[in-house]
Design a protein that fits this description.
- The chain is an alpha+beta fold and about 150 residues long.
- A hairpin with a 6-residue loop joins strand 3 and strand 4.
- The structure holds a DNA duplex (12 and 12 nucleotides).
Length: about 150
DNA sequence: GCCAACGTTGGC
DNA sequence: GCCAACGTTGGC
């Protein structure tokens, strides 16, 4: 089993939204590296840190689980969607996604600022300068360590 | 709202 | 294949 971190802007889709809906198709990823992680490496049952980005208190707010294999992101074919990609063909979809299932909310937000203060997490992808990936792997050691911070 | 740090696009 | 221009992400 692998571990991941997925970012979402809480104004667009928050951990509370996921809790209410139980499962969500993680659509709208339009970055090749992030897509490749979902398409090639994610498996049902993998665990996910749910991260709130671009907000007052960025940080890890909950845990989710990969709930499907990768399949084509339907929004790429929807002309009314802001994720519409006119260059993607149905016979050869460019963008893939997975379903993500709610597991739990953390008792508190483990903030980005706090994560930066732990030497153990120095190598964490999330904390690398300039990293803007919305889907990224988390090392098992990092996963376990972060859970002890809750 | 600002802007650094990207990734993508397209002219050449 | 280079690289300038442009668009996006996301912390602050």
């Amino acid at each position: 089993m692998k571990y991941w971190l997925m970012k979402s802007e809480p104004e667009a889709f928050s951990i509370d939204d996921l809790k209410r809906k139980r499962t969500e198709a993680w659509d709208g990823v339009r970055n090749y590296q992030a897509r490749n992680f979902m398409r090639d490496s994610m498996r049902p049952g993998d665990q996910v840190f749910f991260y709130h980005s671009n907000c007052a208190e960025p940080g890890i707010v909950g845990i989710a689980e990969v709930a499907s294999a990768a399949y084509p992101d339907p929004s790429q074919f929807d002309a009314k969607s802001k994720y519409f990609d006119p260059t993607s063909k149905r016979e050869e979809p460019r963008w893939m996604l997975v379903d993500v299932k709610f597991v739990k909310k953390l008792k508190r937000t483990i903030t980005l600022d706090e994560l930066k203060g732990h030497e153990t997490l120095d190598e964490m992808l999330l904390l690398r300068k300039g990293n803007r990936l919305s889907v990224m792997p988390v090392a098992a050691t990092e996963w376990r360590y972060i859970l002890t911070l809750e």
